[in-house]
Amino acid sequence: MGETIFLALQNTFGLANMAALTFGSIIGIIVGIIPGIGPMVGMVILLPFTYYLKPDIALSILLGIFCGGYFGGPVPSVLIRTPGTPSNLFACFDGYPLTQKGEAQLGLSAAIVGSFAGGIISVFMLMLMAPALAKVAASFGSPEFFMVAIFGLTVSLMVHRKQLARGILLMALGLWFGTVGIDPATLVPRFDFGTVQMQNGLHIAPMCLGFFGIGQSLLLLEQQILQTEFVNLSRRTLDFSKLKIAFQYKLTLLKSGVIGTIVGLIPGPGSVTASFFSYLEAKRASKNPEEFGRGTPEGVLACEAGDNAVPAGAMIPLLTLGIPGDAISALLLGIFWTHGIYPGPLLLSKEPVLIYTIYFSLFLINIVCFVLLAVFLRPFASIVRFPSSLLAVCVMVISLLGIYSLNLQIFEMGVAIAMGIMGYIMLRLDWPLVPWILGLVLCPLVEEKMRESLSMSSGNPAIFITRPISLGFVIACVLVVVVPLILDWRRKAKEA
Amino acid sequence: MFEAQEGKWPDPKSRTHDLFTAALGGFAAFLLATLHLHIDTKGSPYPFYKGPVIFPIIILSIMLISSLPSFYRLLKPAPGSRWFVDGEGWPRRPPVILILLILFFIIGINLIGAEISVFLFLCISIFFLKYRSIWINLVLPLLYTAAMISIFKYMFDVFFPKPWIFRVFGG
Lengths: 496, 171
Description:
The structure holds two protein chains of two kinds. Chain A is mostly helical. Chain A has helices at about 1-10, 15-35, 40-50, 55-70, 75-80, 90-100, 105-135, 140-160, 165-180, 195-200, 205-220, 240-245, 250-265, 270-285, 295-310, 310-320, 325-340, 345-350, 350-375, 375-380, 390-405, 410-430, 435-455, 465, 470-495; strands at about 180, 190.
């Protein structure tokens, strides 16, 4: 154990890893600050570059972007009332009124302290909960893994239950994309449409780069996102006296961090839900709830602590079960697989050094993001002035060259452009994209475990309800579907 | 229990949404009907539950079933429903940029090479986006192209095909 921690510390503080996580954090903050881009696009753009790197270095860059995006997101929320990422919407409620009062420094301090505290609390919880969950998951067989994956997909669908039919359709579409190519169990080609390229399957990188990188860029071309020439900051760095005020709300920070981690570890809900619940709980428990919405630092730090606790929270099911908690961790799962690392209950015992390196790197990323934003606040804040349409064409170029560099195939560029068109249509129609990417990433696991389970029972599907843990997940799935529908129905009946 | 995510929900009276949903459902129906053409199971030693078709059948059926309400609404539109996306009109910029992407990245890299393709794509796109300054229209594409080519061609040693134009003129 001691040797593992020593080796992990050596890896974490190695020059390459430090450079990687700092670089990732800077890119993450930048893409978080630019409205409409966000950490997902940042990660998919750098995805092809990470294939050339060692897994721990690649993960440090991507985790840096993941967390950095959440750190950067509230900056435009506070300054120009435009959330950098959707989950930063709640920071607008109190952050922008603070800016209007001439207290932008206080709003930003609250956002940065909230993000920092949420990040650190969630990494502690990750370190505590991951080994415990891995022990439980070690007793899982194929039916249990299948049901966990189905549970994750069900939760993600029910979060988008206002568009349930479309959510199911997109999830199934994502699963179908995953079946294209040679079936690994029987070596039979499926849906190759007579082309050799399709027999290799549709790789996750061109799919995600097209869907999120090109699709989002096409959307940016026509959306006139609010930009400003005026950034209202009294000084170049963060005003450190305001940090003290933000750190006074210790209990709110702690509660929001815990809420964010728990929401993050449930596959599906994601950071918007975490941010929303943290904000609601802070308002409920506050001595001055009437201040919420009028400009209180407590509101800003609560939602940001909840928001930034999600990345580490989402790593818990990802590392221990191989089930991603949201779209971004679904992408991380693809990166693990690309590097020949298969997250699951055995990962913690098979790759302890890598796991501890991830833990320590997450700690460092939160510290690095905090310091970077505190020291270089004005340069980072000035990024909100950059024209989004120019950025969009630059993102497309790097996305397509990155895709080509993976396998040197023009065909994959074509796949990415096709996915970009589809992603653009879905984004424009405001359809739920999380079920699509979860379906795409989870397809190999779901299909393999389903067929293994049916093989165990000679084709009898009752195997999923005759094993206690699997039955527990079946019941959980039913509850996740039924309870919200009943609550929605009762709410509607009350309103009527 | 978790809340449904808030957002700008699609207009329930939009027939455009139903059209796209039905198109995906129709695609699933087509694949289901022609499954034997896409997955060859002749002489397969595996029972159905172990074979390669069980999972595609399940997911394509799910796709088809989930699109049925949209098929119904397309055939029997609700009063007041119309062809409507999100109130922001029909896209103008994305189709042009998409055509440029296809021209310069799918066709152009083989014909005129990566360097010229990237530079021309940037120049034309930026001009189309109505920027009119020598720095943005010329210097930025030049610098960005140089950076991209340096990273991919020289740093990562990515092989780009020799352009057709060079082969023709013996470059």
